[in-house]
Amino acid sequence: MSENKDPHVAESGLESVKFVYDFTEGNKDLKDLLGGKGANLAEMTNLGLPVPPGFTISTEACKTYLDSGDEPAALRDEVSAHLDALEERMGKKLGQADNPLLVSVRSGAKFSMPGMMDTVLNIGLSDKSVKGLAEQAGDERFAWDSYRRLIQMFGKTVLAVDGDLFEDALEAAKTAKKVTVDTDLEAADLKKLVTKFKKIVKTECGRDFPQDPREQMDLAIHAVFDSWNTDRAKLYRRQERIPHDLGTAVNICSMVFGNLGPDSGTGVAFTRDPASGHQGVYGDYLQNAQGEDVVAGIRNTVPLAELELIDKKSYDQLMQIMETLENHYKDLCDIEFTIERGQLWMLQTRVGKRTAGAAFRIATQLVDQGLIDEAEALQRVTGAQLAQLMFPRFDEDAKVEQIGRGIAASPGAAVGKAVFDSYTAIKWSRSGEKVILIRRETNPDDLDGMIAAEGILTSRGGKTSHAAVVARGMGKTCVCGAEDLEVDTKRRRLTVNGTIVEEGDVVSIDGSTGKVYLGEVPVVPSPVVEYFEGRMHAGADDADELVAAVHRIMAYADRVRRLRVRANADNAEDALRARRFGAQGIGLCRTEHMFLGDRREQVERLILADTDAEREESLKELLPRQKQDFIELFEAMDGLPVTVRLLDPPLHEFLPDITELSVRVALAESRKDSNENDLRLLQAVHRLHEQNPMLGLRGVRLGLVIPGLFTMQVRAIAEAAAERKNAKGDPRAEIMIPLVGTVQELEIVRDEAEQVIAEVQQQTGVDLKLSLGTMIELPRAALTAGQIAEAAEFFSFGTNDLTQTVWGFSRDDVEASFFTAYLEKGIFGVSPFETIDKDGVGKLVRDAVKAGRATRPDLKLGVCGEHGGDPESVHFFHEVGLDYVSCSPFRIPVARLEAGRAASTSKGSDHR
Ligand code: PEP
Ligand code: MG
Q1: In the annotation, is 864 catalytic?
Q2: Which ligand is closest to the CA of 803, given by its number?
Q3: Do 889 and 847 share a structural domain?
């Protein structure tokens, strides 16, 4: 994930020795160098907006500091030069006794990391300059309050003094004066508090609070640099997948004060509603306060609209600035501002975060306003957001009793009875109950319980905890780290703020918001799924605004995408749904799914067959049923390709469980009542037992050692296709051989298949154009793709098995047992089973594409592993030049959208 490009050269063309940039020098595209805050302050400055003057120390300086333990040699002089210029401009000097310039020192990384890193305000105040500030502001109380804030913040963040010591002293001062809010402390009280705070610093650090303003500034800069590597910042980056080597910029900004009286204040605003996307006046304002007061929630804010009554001039100016910013950034912006004695100042802006629904709405609204074009609209939304909109959700109108909130770890809305251990989860779910598994945290032993549960709720752990990772992998709703919940697994109950939830009580959890409710909250299907299902029409008068927005963006994605999107489906019902969702064929029909249920016995007979005659008999029985399956599938996908994969899994998967069967046989024997069939079955189970079934007798190997198996399947496909043709259908079957490692395997199976197809053509008189291809899911197949392409008309990359075999990971075992540890240690940011490992597995895919096409230029190339529906992986498959991705029906819209996004960002397909 690291970005190696030199930001100086790549982005700015500015000379690479420079570490400090005045706000007038940067712009919004320099986030790598100046951090998000610095880049946007510069942009606003250049737009002529009222930004307090200042400068930014680059992330490069931070990186040098963190790498070498010392700031770059040139930094001090550069800061001095910029400080001189700032002082000249402001007509006052940092910490000057009679008329001090004060500055804030704020962190600002490329990606926003809210509350993770440090900020120090009021730098420049000292025993001397506090008096100057009092005079300058004509307000003694304000000056001493600012000074105590500086010592408190500086003490805590720069000198690492326990913040509670200051808080306790502040509380004591309020108690002594019998007041409850800070603002009731007067200048004299605050003066005493400053003395007390300075004493705390001296006792705790063995040094005086620095009186030299430049020393304050330099120490604050270092503290901001250091705050990049605090444990909480590192954890946040791991969870948000932000690279660790970016470093933070530091913004030095002349102070403006929102706490100079009732004509001052501070606030936050959004240019439109981040929840719905609608335009309007959204935000909060706090009179006579500094930014930190808003965050701390000390006093109640008022809605931004009320600012119009408090200070109309500033309000009007703010509205105008918000419009300027929206038109300039062409997106929703969020803003922090301060009003100092009736003068409005902009302290920050950035493109604001929004909900998934708002992202789609805003993108289309901006197109309608003529601010962006459709290509840009496509970049403003993501497949992950679309996926979120497709989960069923709780009815917004329902009455709810929220009892807690945790981390939204895996989306969805789940309702069920509370259970506190896996055993009960399994037992109850077997008897038809829906359950929510509640644990303090989960571990691999809970896996079966997690599978049985509707959703998982834990009181500990973050987005990479075991519960979160496994739940996401299973597509199961999960809320984790709901710390208010006291989970008592022994007494089978949880307690939260006096409410007790006993085993069996119904709870509802929302994996998209992290909210936990007592009782059953009704679930409604997502309108977006209703739309994809064709049950809601985007053009209808009463169509949901969101649905209309999704429809427009999907239409655009479909117009521009190069990748086709197919479905992994093996029955007509799934195929039809996939088609409604926009599938352009089936990329993987797993025929083993057709061998389950009541056909298992027939498969058992095939496996147990001792003689050729017995085996042929059982295959003959299976043939018509297989054929019927294919007829239905080809009909559902009429006119579109259907890739049918011949049998893949090891045969013991079709036989009873070894332990269950052994017990049954032993019991029967003890009753002298042995069943001949069970005995034969048990023998077969033992014979077919494998130490590592993933690497045993499966895939093409089955076809080669069990005579007649693959040919039966090929015959079923060919006869079904002939029948569909006779019925005036348009079947487009493709026969796919799994787990091929060498071209010789493929050649043998291929010859047999061609013979069968020729026979069926002759028997039916129908001209069948069936293509034959293979999966590429073993490293050897990828490495010899050039040879394999001699015998294959298409490749479908089976990236599930390819990931298993390239990494040597058995998926079923590793995900639950040690992936959490790997994610926490940052070995990978995301499971390679979720997002394709570009450097390893991806390299094999890339090389195999090249080699395959070199042999056979018209080789058709697709992917049918889980990665086919993963947004980031779809971009990779576009880039390496595949023809299609195939994924489960529910992920098709996401794949369509991401294929469109990939095509409209790519600079052409020169990879082909
Ligand atoms: C694969 O290996 O990627 C694949 C699609 O096959 P399966 O998941 O059925 O093994
Ligand atoms: Mg496979």
Answers
A1: yes
A2: 1
A3: yes
Range of the structural domain that residue 272 is part of: 265-354
User: Mean pLDDT in the chain?
Assistant: 91
pTM (2 d.p.):
0.84
**Quick one: pLDDT at residue 440?**
93
Q: Which atom in ligand 1 lies closest to the alpha carbon of residue 588?
A: 5
Let me know whether 231 and 273 are in one domain. no
- For residues 797 and 741, state if they share a domain: yes
Indicate the pLDDT class of residue 829, thresholds 50, 70 and 90: confident
Same domain for 471 and 438, yes or no, is yes
570 lines ligand 1 (CB under 6 A): no
CATH code of the domain covering residue 571 = 3.20.20.60
* Ligand 1 site, residue 777, Cβ cutoff 6 A: yes
Q: Exactly one of 466, 551, 652, 878 is catalytic; which is it?
A: 466
Give the position of tokens 């027939």: 602
DSSP, collapsed to helix, strand or coil, labels residue 508 as strand
Q: For residue 837, what pLDDT is reported?
A: 97
Catalytic residue among 253, 478, 480, 864, which?
864
- Judged on CB neighbours under 10 Å (0-12, 13-18, 19+), 48 is exposed
Whose atoms come closest to the Cα of 800: which ligand?
A: 1
Supply the pLDDT for residue 5: 40
Q: Is the CB of 836 within 6 Å of ligand 1?
A: no
586-624 burial, b if ≥16 CB within 10 A, otherwise e?
Answer: bbbbbbbebbeeebeebbbbbbbbeeeeebeebbebbbe
Query: Is the distance from the beta carbon of residue 865 to the nearest atom of ligand 1 less than 6 Å?
Result: yes
Same domain, 312 and 421: no
> What is the share, in percent, of the chain residues with pLDDT greater than 70?
96
Cβ–ligand 1 distance for 799 under 6 Å, the answer yes
- In whole angstroms, what is the distance from residue 538 CA to residue 545 CA? 8
Contacts (Cβ under 8 Å, ≥6 apart) of 690 = 650, 652, 696, 697
pLDDT of 464 reads: 65
What's the CATH number where 245 sits? 1.20.80.30
One domain, residues 214 and 319? no
Domain boundary pick from 187, 222, 254: 254
Atom of ligand 1 nearest to the CA of 568: 5
What is the structure's pLDDT at 646?
Answer: 97
Please report the atom of ligand 1 found closest to the CA of residue 590. 9
User: Hey, how many other C-beta atoms are within 10 angstroms of the C-beta on 637?
Assistant: 28
